[in-house]
Amino acid sequence: MEFITSAARLFADTMAVPQADIRLNSEYILQVLGTVTVPDFSPKSKKIVVDDSEAAPADVEDMEADEKEILDVLDVVQRRHNSNKYFRDMISQEFEKDDDSNGHIDYIVATANLRAEMYGIATSDRYSIKRVAGKIIPAIATTTATVAGLVAIELFKLIRKASLEDYKNCFLNLALPAVVLSEPGAAKVTQIRDGLSFTLWDKLRVQGTESMTMNDFIAKVKEVMQLEVDMVLQGSRIIYSAILPTHRKKIKEKMSSLVRIQGVKPYIDLTVCFGGLSDEVSMDVPPVRYLLPPV
């Protein structure tokens, strides 16, 4: 209860949302919590590799966030930024341990003891936590916090679709201290033909269907690239090659039977080799993102 109350107060102060005493009342909070449905906990099934000679399994949840999920989050943030005045008027909060009215220590105490209970660690009283929190204030201004802040600034620029000149690289050394900002260089553009070029950030997307065959997939790619497809690979595995006689029958097989679905991503990145391109250009051709049919 203390965690929910203190966290709600901090969010309200940050977003300039007026607070009413009734909304901080324990009975009111319990009434609201009674309407919340908490999903059942489902442990992740993950194999831990303990033998270096054993190949590591494909991680179901990659370390890199799924691109589609990121774009969905950015879309939500953009819409809320445009429609919610509280979201536009966010106010930074300066930590002050000696002002009990701001709820800062309340949040730290509730969070620390909640985490302690999770891991079976002895909880601490408010005075002890307040004393420790007062000693670690200088540690907040570390390189890690600085980098996190700089990344967040660049993310806001991405949301607002800023021009390339507005983005910044940063080289910093807080021990000197030295902070140097520079403009990033534009991505290399590879020209395939008139009207068709790409960078390393580009991907050709093909929406899959339940009935899509390899021939349909090649036709979609050829429609955009206007080049003959010589080979299609998934990772290092060849799933189609125009020069292999045994692969001629694969042209009529469904994509669902040719590709291997790994993990929970709604897509598979395929490498497509084209005829008529120089070796230099072929090495830079972006992957084709095959979007799996909706379930």
Structure in words:
The chain has 295 residues and is of the alpha+beta class. The chain has helices at 2-14, 26-33, 67-83, 85-88, 104-118, 126-135, 143-159, 214-225, 255-258, 279-284; strands at 169-173, 178-182, 190-193, 196-198, 204-207, 229-234, 237-241, 267-274, 288-291. The strands form three sheets. The chain has a five-stranded mixed beta sheet, with helices on one face. Strand 3 and strand 4 form a beta hairpin. The longest helix has 17 residues, at 67-83. It is elongated and about 75 Å long. The model has no long low-confidence stretch (mean pLDDT 82).
Layout of helices and strands, plus pairs?
Layout: H1 2-14, H2 26-33, H3 67-83, H4 85-88, H5 104-118, H6 126-135, H7 143-159, E1 169-173, E2 178-182, E3 190-193, E4 196-198, E5 204-207, H8 214-225, E6 229-234, E7 237-241, H9 255-258, E8 267-274, H10 279-284, E9 288-291
Parallel strand pairs: 5-9
Antiparallel strand pairs: 1-2, 3-4, 6-7, 6-8, 8-9
Helix pairs in contact: 1-5, 5-6
